[in-house]
Amino acid sequence: MDTIESAQRRLIQCLPRVVETELVSLNHALGRVLAEGVLSQYDVPPSMVSLFDGYALTAPTRCAEVRTVVGQSYAGDAPQSLPSPDVAWRIFTGAALPLGSDAVIAQESVTLQADGRIVLNEVLRVGAGVRQQGADTQIGQCVLSAGTRLDAAHLGLLASVGVAEIAVVRRPRVALFTTGDELIEPGCALPPGKIFNANHALLRAAMARLSIEVLDLGVLPDEPVAIRAALLRGAAEADLVLTSGGVSVGDADWVRQVVADIGCIDTWRVFLKPGKPLAFGRIGDTPFIGLPGNPVSTFITFFLFVRPAIRAMVGADPDIDRPAPRLPLAQPWTGGDRPEFIRVKRARSIAGQTHLLTFPNQNSGLLSSIAWADGVALIPADSTLAEGDFVDYFPFEGWYL
Question: What would you measure as the largest C-alpha separation in the chain, in angstroms?
Fold first, then answer.
């Protein structure tokens, strides 16, 4: 069996890259991956601006110095000029400094006389109270690199340098189907022996969060002819074929067998719990990933393997080497013969420290455990952990980025 790290790297290395690009507006760029770096065409801010309400003047100054106020500027006003170095200019937060000034004194630090002149109650040096031109971004600076997956802060940064549309990598297209004679769709009556198809909804939602276009091939019976047809269609029309169920060794587990017949299987077991029966391979030139059918196994293997695979396909960092935060367990735990991802939730101990509560039943068929948890903790194989022992913690919110 492959280790988690080996399986992740082997999968990433064998995937083709999506190279097609498209221009999108910032309003439609959230979650997309930059196809090329972005250079700023502007200084931000474009001129020196005031950090607060006060008076712009030339520095250095002397305490008790008196200055005549000769004008005023609000944020958005075009810069004016200071007529001489011995006067002051009323200025408000964010306004451009008048040419010839180089400092701002806060309005609380002056005494306003009856004749309109101000008395300076502190000594200023050049640059005091000022945000310098280009303090945030300078012309020609690379503000974002190719491969960046765009979040709200990135989009704000692009807007701040005047970018309205950007080149992004085309959304990867993933063909998805789930298998199982026992599955029926939510909304139907539930006959004896059947269960609702939860994995399909789970995987579609996870892919939507990751800006993946889904070719939905539905739910298929455990029947090799139908599975073969779906696999061939997915391989012809998508960048990746993703399935759930049918990759173990049971008599009705046809997916792995059919993929091996029409393509190849590189790996079909990984040394972890839950999620050992994981398969990946190829159908023609199209990569294939087959996830296990138990819902928790589907959830965890999707984020451990499919997420980094998709990120690599569009040129983003696969994000498999980021150190996991370590938090203490609230209860003792004994590991099994494989590394295990257990469902946990952060909580405050009586002493006020953050620790990890564990879901009482770690069966891989319990979706309620995923809904309850806010992450998983990695328990090393053959380990005996006491209350307070530290483990690697993987918050779910980080998996959706």
Answer: 96
Percent above pLDDT 90 for the chain: 86
DSSP 288: E
pLDDT for residue 251 is more than 60: no
Question: How far apart, in whole angstroms, are the C-alpha atoms of residue 165 and residue 29?
Answer: 8
pTM listed for this prediction: 0.87
Fold of 21-44+136-169: Molybdopterin biosynthesis moea protein, domain 2 (3.90.105)
Q: Where are the domains of the chain?
A: 4-19+170-313, 21-44+136-169, 49-131, 326-399
9-26: average pLDDT: 93
Residues 6+ apart with CB under 8 A from 286: 234, 235, 236, 238, 239, 240, 241
For residue 192, what are the CA distances in angstroms to 70, 137, 185, 250, 327? 87, 64, 14, 22, 44
- Name 306's Cβ contacts closer than 8 Å, sequence gap at least 6: 242, 289, 291
Q: Which helix (H) or strand (E) holds 398?
A: helix 396-399
Locate 359 and state its tokens: 């879901």
Report d(CA 334, CA 296) in Å as an integer. Answer: 20
Q: Which CATH class is domain 4-19+170-313?
A: alpha beta
Distance of CA 147 to the CA centre of its chain: 12
Read off the pLDDT of residues 352-361 as tens digits, 9 standing for 90 and up: 999 999 999 9
Beta strand segments in 121-162, E = 130-131, 142-144
**Per-residue pLDDT tens for 267-280?**
768 899 998 788 88
